[in-house]
Amino acid sequence: MRLIFNKANDRLLHAKPTVLITGINGFVGSHLADLLISEGYPVSGIALTHDLRHLSHVNQQISLAYGDVRNTKEVADILTEVKPDYIYHLAGSSFVPDAEADPRIVYDVNVLGTLNVLEAARSTHLNARILIVGSSEVYGYVPESALPVSEEYPLKPINLYGVTKACVDMMACQYATAYKMHVIRVRPFNHIGPRQSEQFVCSSFAKQIVEIEQGIRTPILHVGNLESRRDFTDVRDVVRAYRTLLEKAKGGEVYNIGSNRAWKIGDIIGMLIEASRVKEIALEQQSLRVRQNDIPIMRCDTSKVEKAIGWRPDIPIERTLQDLLNYWRETISDVQVLEKRPQGV
């Protein structure tokens, strides 16, 4: 069952293209919605769950459908009703360990869900521009001599999540080629910022540090491999790249999205602690936080996207980490207020 509510977007009132975002209530989807709404786009979205906390500030400005991208008919019905000019397909499972724990559901969400979106757009003759989100995990292990890694590097994923994203990447390329559809593929590297789940490394550290600040956790930070180096970009820069690529880039192309800089995880922790209100925090490595087949270093070659649309990340990592700490301060404070309310109030 799906539900459309708050139909705020009348085409006659907007000069800009109508947008549909799958996974609109997620980390990246909500930031993309913020950007597009601020620029006057009529925005619709598909959400799997009723968890709309990341959209509470804009829920009067979007049209929302509850639906599952794994359901072929639901996807086709929503596209037929919305008739989007631009489709940003962000719905998917993005946490690598989830794929190891339940490969079938991650395959269904990432691969079948993407197939349903592409096929619905093709069969309904929408002539929409479509952005399909892949992942840097498709590259697998890249030797330092080949870094920064470009879009020309062969796809050699070393985990199941990366395999699903490689399937998505090739499927999107096939639809662009065979059906002459305007499909843009992106391969984002690690992106971070406010609203990110605590499952992910930077957000996990930030949440733990804020809990230590507020006295609800002992001053011990649980960590994994501190020597790994990753290419981190602020999510608000990432969605700016998505928007500009779908507006201006040539269909059928693929673009890396990243910062062209590799940060050591231990240095990220140091910056978070420096920005925190407590300076004495011990580190404790937990085996569950150390990933098997961990890639030691990833760094993104951004030259193609820079040449195509002039995009570069603007937000320094220090601001991103500060904003992430502030997000968890607000979130945890809100939870504590709710827990302290008398029953019935």
TrEMBL record:
InterPro entries from the UniProt entry: NAD(P)-bd_dom, NAD(P)-bd_dom_sf
Coiled coil: none
Superkingdom of this protein's organism: Bacteria
Domain NAD(P)-binding: 20-323
Name by which UniProt lists this protein: GDP-mannose 4,6-dehydratase
Organism whose genome encodes this protein: Candidatus Methylomirabilis tolerans
Lineage: Bacteria, Candidatus Methylomirabilota, Candidatus Methylomirabilia, Candidatus Methylomirabilales, Candidatus Methylomirabilaceae
